[in-house]
Amino acid sequence: MEILAITAIVLLLIYLYRKMRKTYSVFETLKIPGPKPVWILGNIHEFKDEDKLSMFKVWRKQYGDVYG
Hints:
The chain is mainly α. The chain is built from two helices and no strands.
């Protein structure tokens, strides 16, 4: 039973990883600039010290009007 649970967890992690890679590869394919996300957390770690609006202003200044 333990091996089944471990296998299910590993398969779930592989599925999530592939889904995220596919989602974010769209930005790379279309050559849309933007901050690189962390595997599961995305860019949430960049908001810890600043409010969201100021971080979006920084990204707009850095990447232009269109970023992903």
